[in-house]
């Protein structure tokens, strides 16, 4: 026997074909045949998600077919047939309000007033029992007319324009125009607009952008924050818009370092520059990342001024707000107008938003507080909506809404839809003399308006709310499995009701409040199933962009209770956030993913052991400095113990080696030095058994770093030298250069200046060959320190100058701060104290920016020295005291502490506070000998004590004190 599919007839296919034909041709016969095929919800005894979704889809098609058939019969005045069809609708959906209202009308038009009134009472009972709601105002109004014996007429709803009229705000628009003029003249501006929900913040900016002369040639970029969005999402939105409008030639002007940083997050850049390689991790990476983002915005603004409009900043993540602080500090030099909006109710005292707003420079960031419309402005709005209206309309609307524009528009739509707001024979719009029922607030008004959504559009509305702030037609089509034409019809229904808007191929709710109300009213199971379908749709549609949308997928999978998928996407999203230096957001994702493991079945958890190991590796990576480790020691210790156990169990030697290195840093933070050294020994032993010698090189580099942190300079030097030899044998000149640079830094601290200079010059040649501008700048900066200690001030100045130019080119703010600090020290050594203060004050202005806190001790201490040189003793003491407070808060984790103790000693001595001064001289002396006693090589110890200028000064002062 052979099966021939073409000989088969499938009722489901025929059902869908007949509905499509009946809808398109307005053919009642096709619709009748389709309805006859429907035998009730299929798969009613199957409780799988696919069965529930398919059953609901088919029932929706069935109800849609009934509605369309009833409309055809009503248009043909075949009332009895229409009554029969609407009755079938109620069998399927008992609370279908339109069906009840149509039946009331049809019964009344047929002369059966009793049946019409009974239908209303039955509906009220269903609503009370099932939903605990009253009927819509238009249903109540229809009942009143029938009760009075007035023949019902269909309510003719006036179509309000999709774009509501804009009124008032003259002062705000004038202010915006002035800011824009300054931008066009070459001075960037930042404006933040605050106001209550619905007051018109977004509408004000949209109107301004649409109507301001000269905007036609500006680059307008728009993004919006939303709850649970990935880090930097509003920034990424505007950048993607900007990348569509900029040429390859213009982009090529950006330094390769910046392009490589940006290409990790924008596939558009990888497509244009396929040979870009990721930048190596760096402690200064966040500065590099921020500089790259800002450099791109500056590039956008070179040919034409740029308007960056960031909406709803009350939902912005901390990484976005941190970057905006950085951007605002740079924006003045570029033709950029940054406009942000936020809800004032989210900026209460103690909130993250309030803290961020309070830290912004008040002399530069402009603010606007938006108030509701005045009575006169509301009158202007109504004049544009209705040419003639009774004064009671204005008074009632103003009393109910208090001038909130969103509330006004929603209430006007509701009153028109219910027929309460009507036009008399003379064309004047009036409200009834009796008191009208108005929902208490915006949320209640939105809930009422949602009940007017046609039944056929409910599935689209619900899925859109589940999808999130914005959605696309392909996503809806893939998740709902409906024809594109039918979906467009449903979207048109929702647009006509003012619930959604379209912008360049994407749809979004007219206001986030509308989406939230729709979402909140869905059942838990409905949300879970919807999130599952959206996740599956996104996976299918964006298979090549899963990393980019990993945060969105993680959220949908978690809410769909797809635990395994959720934690895998959370891991990807956490790694992505980590690459963007959004450590707090990455940490939250990693912790959420780890918390999912108890929800996963034992068999699945065993299969996911490797994933858990990678997740623990990610989690323990998210504390970039030892200062971040300290507050989380207990949790980190537990994570490392589990990571080591898993790595041993899975025989993942490379990750086991990594775990022991991390353990060393944790032990060091807990002041367990012997345990830290033991962990490093374990890591080194494991690495030496691995075929990849680069792992051993990295371990040695980290060991050297820890020895240097502890002041164990001779051990650190040996590690860096061995690291350099390994990289040389592997033919990696770039990494060899960094090992040479670190060896030179230790030699500089030991007073081995000739060797330090030689190694730095070798490193410089390697870095020049690799075109590593940042590395060259770091080497030149350290060469400047060598020459400064040797008293070769002109050569030191030349090195700092070259280092500063290179660092400016790559936009490394932290690097600039370090160079400026060293430059200030050079001026002090030459007795140029005022010039030194200029350099040091520039560093202090940078201290609040990303990753720059580590400069604080050195800068304050050197400022104290400069003021001391000028005889400004009180200022000197103030600066040095602040330096001591920061230093002592770091629990011995700042190198060259003896330098800062000695400066404080000198300043206290100048104040005549000898006893107190001697305590700090003691600390400086002890620190010198703490380090010296750890130097095992006699020659190096002697060099450290005799050749390093600051150590000479400390020992001389100590000897002098002992003598007297």
In a nutshell, what does this entry contain?
This protein has 964 residues and is mainly α.
Q: What would you note in describing this structure?
A:
With 964 residues, this protein is mostly helical. Helix content is 67%, strand content 5%. The protein has 48 helices and ten strands. It starts with 10 loop residues before the first helix and ends with a helix. The relative contact order is 0.05.
Rough outline: elongated
* Number of extended strands: 10
Compute the number of helices.
48
Q: How far apart lie the N and C ends? A: 116 Å
Largest sheet: 5 strands, parallel
Query: Roughly what fraction of the amino acids lie in strands?
Result: under 5%
Q: Low-confidence runs (pLDDT<50, min 5 residues)?
A: none
Please identify the structural class as seen in this structure.
mainly alpha
Radius of gyration: 36 Å
Side by side, the strands of the main sheet go: 2-3-4-1-5
The proportion of residues forming helix, as a percent range, comes to 55-70%
Overall mean confidence score, pLDDT: 86
């Amino acid at each position: 026997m052979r099966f021939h599919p073409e000989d088969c007839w499938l009722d489901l296919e025929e059902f869908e074909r007949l509905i499509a034909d009946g809808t398109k041709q307005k053919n009642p016969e096709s619709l009748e045949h389709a309805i006859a095929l429907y035998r009730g919800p299929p798969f009613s005894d199957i409780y799988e998600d696919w069965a529930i979704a398919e059953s609901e889809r088919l029932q929706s098609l069935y109800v849609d077919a009934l509605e369309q058939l009833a409309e055809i019969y009503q248009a043909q005045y075949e009332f009895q047939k229409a009554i029969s069809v609407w009755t079938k609708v109620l069998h399927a959906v008992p609370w279908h309000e339109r069906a009840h209202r149509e039946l009331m009308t049809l019964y009344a038009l047929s002369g059966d007033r009793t049946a019409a009134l009974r239908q209303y009472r039955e509906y009220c009972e269903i609503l009370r029992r099932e939903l605990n709601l009253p009927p819509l105002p238009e249903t109540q109004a229809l009942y009143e007319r029938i009760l009075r014996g007035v023949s019902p007429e269909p309510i003719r709803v006036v179509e309000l324009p999709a774009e509501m009229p804009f009124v008032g705000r003259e002062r705000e628009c004038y202010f915006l125009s002035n800011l824009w003029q300054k931008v066009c003249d070459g001075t960037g501006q930042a404006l933040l607009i605050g106001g209550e929900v619905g007051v018109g913040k977004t509408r004000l900016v949209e109107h301004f952008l649409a109507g301001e002369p000269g905007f036609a040639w500006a680059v307008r970029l728009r993004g919006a924050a939303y709850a649970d969005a990935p880090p930097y999402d509003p920034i990424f939105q505007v950048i993607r818009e900007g990348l569509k409008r900029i040429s390859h030639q213009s982009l090529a002007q950006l330094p390769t370092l910046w392009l490589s940083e940006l290409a990790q997050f924008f596939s558009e850049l990888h497509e244009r520059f396929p040979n870009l390689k990721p930048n190596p991790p760096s402690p200064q990476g966040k500065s590099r990342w921020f500089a790259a983002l800002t450099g791109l915005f500056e590039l956008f603004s070179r040919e034409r001024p740029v308007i960056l409009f960031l909406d709803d900043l009350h939902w912005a993540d901390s990484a976005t707000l941190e970057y905006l602080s950085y951007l605002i500090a740079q924006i003045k030099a570029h033709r950029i107008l940054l406009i942000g909006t936020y809800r004032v109710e989210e900026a209460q005292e103690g909130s993250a938003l309030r803290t961020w707003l309070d830290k912004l420079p008040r002399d530069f960031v402009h603010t606007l507080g938006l108030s509701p419309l005045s009575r006169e402005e509301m009158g202007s709005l109504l004049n544009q909506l209705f040419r003639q209206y009774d004064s009671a309309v204005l008074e009632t609307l103003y009393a109910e809404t208090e001038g909130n524009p969103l509330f006004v528009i929603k209430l006007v739509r509701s009153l028109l839809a219910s027929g309460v707001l009507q036009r008399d024979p003379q064309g004047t719009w009036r409200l009834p003399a009796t008191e009208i029922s108005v929902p208490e607030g915006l949320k209640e008004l939105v809930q009422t308006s949602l009940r007017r959504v046609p039944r056929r559009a409910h599935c689209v509305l619900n899925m859109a709310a589940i999808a999130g702030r914005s959605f696309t037609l392909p996503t809806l089509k893939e998740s709902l499995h409906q024809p594109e034409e039918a979906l467009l019809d449903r979207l048109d229904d929702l647009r006509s009701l003012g619930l959604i808007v379209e912008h360049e191929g994407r749809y979004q709710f007219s206001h986030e409040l509308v989406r939230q109300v729709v979402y909140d009213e869905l059942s838990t199971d409905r949300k879970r199933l919807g999130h599952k379908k959206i996740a599956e749709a996104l996976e299918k549609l964006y298979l090549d962009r899963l990393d980019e949308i990993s945060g969105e997928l993680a959220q949908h999978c978690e809410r769909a209770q797809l635990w395994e998928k959720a934690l895998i996407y959370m891991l990807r999203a956490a790694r992505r956030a980590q690459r963007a230096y959004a450590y707090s957001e990455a940490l939250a994702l990693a912790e959420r993913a780890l918390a999912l493991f108890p929800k996963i079945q034992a068999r699945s958890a065993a299969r996911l052991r490797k994933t858990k190991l990678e997740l623990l590796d990610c989690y323990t990576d998210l504390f970039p400095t030892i200062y971040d480790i300290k507050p989380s020691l207990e949790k980190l210790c537990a994570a490392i113990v589990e990571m080591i156990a898993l790595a041993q169990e899975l025989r993942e030697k490379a990750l086991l080696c990594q775990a022991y290195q991390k353990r060393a840093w944790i032990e060091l933070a807990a002041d367990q030095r012997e345990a830290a050294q033991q962990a490093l020994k374990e890591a080194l032993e494991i690495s030496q058994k691995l075929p990849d010698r680069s792992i051993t090189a990295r371990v040695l580099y980290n060991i050297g770093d820890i020895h240097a942190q502890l002041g164990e300079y001779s051990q650190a030097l040996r590690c860096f030298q061995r690291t350099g030899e390994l990289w040389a044998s592997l033919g990696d000149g770039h990494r060899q250069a960094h090992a040479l640079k670190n060896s030179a830094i230790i030699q500089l601290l030991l007073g081995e200046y000739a060797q330090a200079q030689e190694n730095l010059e070798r490193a410089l040649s390697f870095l020049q060959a690799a075109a590593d501008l940042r590395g060259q700048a770091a080497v030149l900066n350290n060469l400047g320190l060598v020459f400064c200690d040797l008293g070769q001030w002109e050569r030191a100045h030349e090195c700092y100058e070259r280092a500063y130019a290179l660092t400016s080119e790559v936009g490394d703010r932290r690097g600039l701060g370090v160079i400026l600090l060293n430059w200030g020290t050079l001026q002090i050594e030459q007795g140029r104290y005022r010039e030194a203060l200029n350099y040091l004050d520039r560093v202090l202005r940078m201290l609040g920016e990303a990753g720059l806190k580590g400069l604080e001790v050195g800068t304050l201490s050197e400022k104290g020295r400069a003021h001391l040189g000028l005889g400004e003793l009180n200022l000197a003491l103030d600066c040095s005291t602040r330096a001591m407070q920061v230093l002592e808060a770091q629990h011995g984790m700042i190198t060259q502490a003896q330098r800062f103790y000695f400066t404080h000693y000198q300043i206290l001595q100048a104040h005549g506070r000898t006893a107190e001064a001697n305590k700090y001289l003691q600390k400086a002396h002890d620190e010198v000998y703490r380090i010296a006693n750890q130097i095992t090589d006699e020659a190096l110890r002697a060099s450290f004590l005799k050749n390093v200028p600051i150590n000479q000064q400390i020992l001389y002062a100590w000897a002098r004190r002992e003598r007297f």
